[in-house]
Amino acid sequence: MNRECSRNLYDRALSVTPGGVNSPVRAVRPYPFFVKRGDGAHVIDADGNRYLDYVGGYGPLLLGHDLPQSVQSALQSQLADGPMYGAPAEVEVELAEFVTRHVPSVEMIRFVNSGTEATASAVRLARGYTGRDKIVVMQGGYHGAQESTLVQGASGRTSEPSSSGIPSAFAEETITLPFNDAEAARELFEERGDEIACMMTEPILGNYASVPPVDGYLETLRELTEEHGSLLVFDEVMTGFRIGGLQCAQGKFGVTPDVTTFAKIIGGGFPVGAVGGRADIIEQFAPTGNVFQAGTYSGHPLSLTAGLEMLRFAAKNDVYDHVNGLGEKLRSGLTDILADRAPEYTVVGQDSMFKVIFTRDGPRDLKGQCEAGCQQNPDCPRFDYCPKDKTDVDRAETERWERLFWPAMVEQGVFLTANQFESQFISYAHTEEDIEETLEAYKEAL
Ligand SMILES: *Cc1c(COP(=O)(O)O)cnc(C)c1O
């Protein structure tokens, strides 16, 4: 593949932006391809190469790159009416009503401009509501580029910042736990539950190779937080309106958080974020409450129009059946291929998310294993080998994934997220033939 134009663009970019990119995950080696345009389930780079796209903007593009006519006309009409006002507009009420109708735990919602802003606001809200300072997050969880959650440290102990530029005083208020470890959570809450403002977690560790919860784990978190007067915050920035369709992951898993953060899909490809939850909690935000939260662009009419029309389209059409059906097909195809070529590797993902984790060990006998990706089923022969938390994923062949496998897929025209950790997404624009082609590429690259 010729990538001369991308190479030249990267050369220029390196002189004027740090690492040549505006978000570090995009700085793939030796240099990223620059996208000229999207086309359905494909992206086309600056040199005219076509790639089947499973990055999907890292999550927002539920429908792929071609917006349906209804979304396009609504956007054009909003553009014609001006980009934003600094006064409320009807679309803010409409999208809020749509979300509260479909996500039962959300009675009220505040729109912001990114997932990071949503989680930062949710943490401040939980602290304001409870009058406590400590928060708990999962090791390997991701809640955006914000002070309180960019932390690392041993389970149940005080953390340290995982980025320079963050005062250690911030990290001291954050405690981490290993995902799926109910005992560690129970111990922590018994010891210092009355200091904890909230426990924030993704329902699936979507930013750490999509580790799913074991049976009963999310329920345990629900019970512990309730018992100790802490808030349970689900960060559904990735899973919201992706896993479990319109009811989101909380509906699929049947666990009701107090507060939920959204972004990605609810902006239809435009910048957005939101914090939703019980009315008595969300009303702690200014102007009704004392938790200050504000933004010039918050509730931006273009983002909200794109999100609302995309979600309306998904509600009226077979979007979730289509993407989840293809997800099932892709994950079972991958499971079969791995049985043959790399039986130690693990397929993960649910609905329209998927990933292959390059785990180093697997069962001798694969008979009766989960057919379309790990479900943390204790009866599956792979159960003891399926990653349960960050430490398990870190033991995988992450270098092989990134240095050998990913480039081999790109060479075959399949664009996956560039490391072992980020999830991959199927869109409404993908077809059965795309899935076949992708399986062939995996066969070749593994
Ligand atoms: C993407 C993501 C974020 C950060 O959202 P941004 O819009 O990139 O700031 C936070 N939490 C989760 C679970 C995410 O997947």
Automatic annotation (TrEMBL):
GO annotation terms (biological process): protoporphyrinogen IX biosynthetic process
Alphabetical UniProt keywords: Cytoplasm, Isomerase, Porphyrin biosynthesis, Pyridoxal phosphate
EC category name: isomerase
InterPro entries membership: 4pyrrol_synth_GluAld_NH2Trfase (IPR004639), Aminotrans_3 (IPR005814), Aminotrans_3_PPA_site (IPR049704), PyrdxlP-dep_Trfase (IPR015424), PyrdxlP-dep_Trfase_major (IPR015421), PyrdxlP-dep_Trfase_small (IPR015422)
GO molecular function per UniProt: glutamate-1-semialdehyde 2,1-aminomutase activity; pyridoxal phosphate binding; transaminase activity
Cofactor: pyridoxal 5'-phosphate
Pfam families (alphabetical): Aminotran_3 (PF00202)
Gene Ontology cellular component terms for the protein in this record: cytoplasm
Annotated EC: 5.4.3.8
Subcellular locations according to the entry: Cytoplasm
Metabolic or biological pathway, per its Swiss-Prot or TrEMBL entry: Porphyrin-containing compound metabolism; protoporphyrin-IX biosynthesis; 5-aminolevulinate from L-glutamyl-tRNA(Glu): step 2/2
Catalytic activity: (S)-4-amino-5-oxopentanoate = 5-aminolevulinate
Positions carrying N6-(pyridoxal phosphate)lysine: 264
Similarity annotation: Belongs to the class-III pyridoxal-phosphate-dependent aminotransferase family. HemL subfamily.
NCBIfam families in the cross-refs: PRK00062.1
HAMAP family given in the database record: HemL_aminotrans_3
Name of the protein in question: Glutamate-1-semialdehyde 2,1-aminomutase
Gene name tied to this protein: hemL
